[in-house]
Design goal:
Heat Shock Protein 90; 6-stranded mixed sheet; extended; sequence-specific DNA binding; phosphorelay sensor kinase activity; Peripla_BP_I; phosphoprotein; histidine kinase
Amino acid sequence: MGNGWRKAGRWMGQAALGAALLAGCGAPAAPAYRIGFAQCSTNGPWRQAMLAGMERELSFHPEVALKMLNANDNSAVQRQQIRELLDGGIDLLIVSPYESAPVTPAVEEAVARDVPVVLLDRRTASPRYTAYVGGNNLEVGQTAARYAARLLHERGDVVEVLGGPGSSATTERHQGFVRELGAHPGLHLVGQVTGDWKDLALRPALTALLRQHPGVGLVYAHNDAMGRGAREVCQQLGIANRVKIIGVDGLAGPGEGIDFVQRGVLTASVLYAPGGEEAMRTALKILEKQPFRRENTLGTLVIDSTNVLTMRQQTEKMNSQQTDILRQQSLLQRLRATYSSQQTILYGLLASLLGALVLGALAVQSARRNRQINRRLAEQNAENDAINRQLVRQNEEILHQRNQLAALGEQARADTEAKLRFFTNFSHELRTPLTLILGPVEELLSSSPDLSTAQRHDLGLVRRNTQRLLQLVNQLLDFRKIEVGKMAVRASEGDLVAFVREILDAFEKPARLRDIRLRLVAAEPVLTGWFDGNILDKVFFNLLSNALKFTPDHGQITVSLQAAADGQSLRVSVADTGHGISDQDQAHIFEWFYQGDAGAVAKGSGMGLALAQGLVRLHLGQLTFSSQPGQGSTFVVALPRELPAALRATGPVEPSTFALDEPEPLPEAGPLALDAPAAEAASETLVLVIEDNPEVNDFLARKLRTAFRVETATDGHTGFRLATDLIPDLVVCDVMMPGLSGLEVVAQLKADWRTSHVPVVLLTARHAAEQQVEGVQAGADLYLTKPFNPTFLLESVRTLLANRARQRAHYRRELAVDAAPGAPTGPDQTFLADLTAIVEANLTKTDLSVEDVARSLGISRMQLYRKVKAVLGTGVTDFIQSLRLTKARELLLDDALTVAEVAYELGFSSPSYFSTSFKARYQLSPSEFRVRHSSPAR
């Protein structure tokens, strides 16, 4: 892991401080954070400015170490370098991709390893990243086009110099430029040349194009270097005085954009910030668990003769301040080194003084000890007599304590026996009410033909779970019989292959429903031996049930039978392709009521394997297992072929009626054709049910569909994904689930602003007060314990949805015209603040669409619609229109703007449409509103 940090790369942020500490007090301290930077290239001043920005920000954080790897514009190399950084043990990864698609798998691998990823300048092809920092190339192109229209007074021919072919920056800057030119009919793009970001590559093609179009008045170059090359071409052609040059980047320093504008080489440069400082600040917020923005779009502006001097002075002042900071840090490091050196000398002097004092004290103590030795020799004899007397007393105490321990052990055995008797009696008592439940249910199912499909389904649910309880009670009674030695073996001679095949047939249907292949492999067609079928069917039912429970869908279970080499015993093995048994659980797998890591995947009582081992031992056999985590497990039952006469039956043996609870899905739990009254209600309200038990999942869905639309999921990961995709109105979630628990689902839903507003109802069998508090602290709106009343659940859901509707009304009032929006205090308020900021920043765009807003927020159009609908109860288009009209009220109070100018300023397609919309909202035309609200003095 550490080799990656020793390979070739660039380190920053701790070098100077580390040298000083090494000189003063030994090896430098390990960095608090390690950040890896996968840079697509360091060629060109813009990339170097990005790196310089990171260095400036790191100068304030000596505890942070940065390693930069340069891919030299090679996607394959960059993908390998990202994996090298991950293997080196970084805490955060910054990536500036060369190409989006090839680098995406490596970035997704970093996210899967729980390493935060900050994308810089360019995005990947996947939404799986932690944060993005970069400029808006579309806006760069649009800004250049608007400035070109001002320079040419809305009329003239334009030439565009493109960057590298295939680059996302080239594509977006061109799209933004062309899109904005469409709003200025007098401007014409007469031609394009490719400069590939260099000033020399464009000259032949640009010279020919300018000669072909002598009326060209402006050249738009995608970076400042190509703008300088265009100026030199114009000078050679003698047209430099009338052709305007617009570049992009606006970097500081000699020979860069700001310098070109000040010297007149470029008419203007559109600022495209490298974003090094912003990326490093965002990375530090993520590492320090501080709030951060996921999307960080850097602003742009035009640098021309009106502001170039101010921009240059600001950059020079910033560089001067940075130099002062570095000088102060260097001085601090020298002072620390001096202090450390002086401290070492002081410690040496103190150590020498202490040594002298110790030697003097030893000399005095040695003389005193010689005198004491003689005195102690006389006292030792007296002490020996006292020790002998004390040993006699201790022996008597030990004898007394042994007698007490024996009495306590006897009492513990009596208490344990009493608990076992209560345990057995209580299990017996459970059989009576279970029988009284099961009997009427069986009678209703067999003799009531007029039952509806839903009623028959519910009664089948009652019957299956009653049988399951009865089987658990039978297992408890068998456990008690084994403990007290009253489980008798009554063996008879039979064919073990036929016996196992009959048991395997009972598992055929549930295995088929999950596409699990069951195989029976027998070394011989018939293997005879002495065995008790009533005991062995419990053993094999437990082993097969366990294998089916832990084997994933489309897996395989193989049952093998063979005789031992000496012919004295038979071996039956049950092998599955499941998850296997962890090393921690293997030592306890045969303990009563033990549930290890498997309890999170498949629920059970923890008695099956312990009961199977006890029954095999009664049969004078042995149960063993082998397992590899992730590859499956194999359980082997070894049985003697002959049994002593005392274990053989003297008469006919009645067949066993024992049957363990079969794994889900049960044969009866097939697809349910619901009656018409239970069909899904015609409601727009969407409820998401997340429950891993198929029968409980189906039960909840059927009850809720009477009033709402319902979607279901059977695990936490799928449920969270559906919640973020569908944005439901409410979530009903179980607590105990494999993979992602219900508490974790709630925490993730409340932390994600897409779903932070969704009420969550937790259902669980954990009814302790502290467990309910844990659920509420995780963010649940309601905590219901099983069993629950379906009517109460429905009414609770309606109440939560009604409360949510009142909250939507509150948010709408906050966004009303006369209400001053407060500071964001939660995820919903933060979402509304971000949404409002994006819309207000684009109010002038006539073609502002829902897709544009969704793209700025980094979500899909449907997710944005459902989020706005859930929080405000209105559509996105209505929200945009409302903000425009609210802003119109402010602008109309300014007499310097005409009504038509206000309309175009706010993105309305025409003044008439603006007047119609304004009057529909405020019952006044814009002119009437201005007259009514104007001051009399004016």
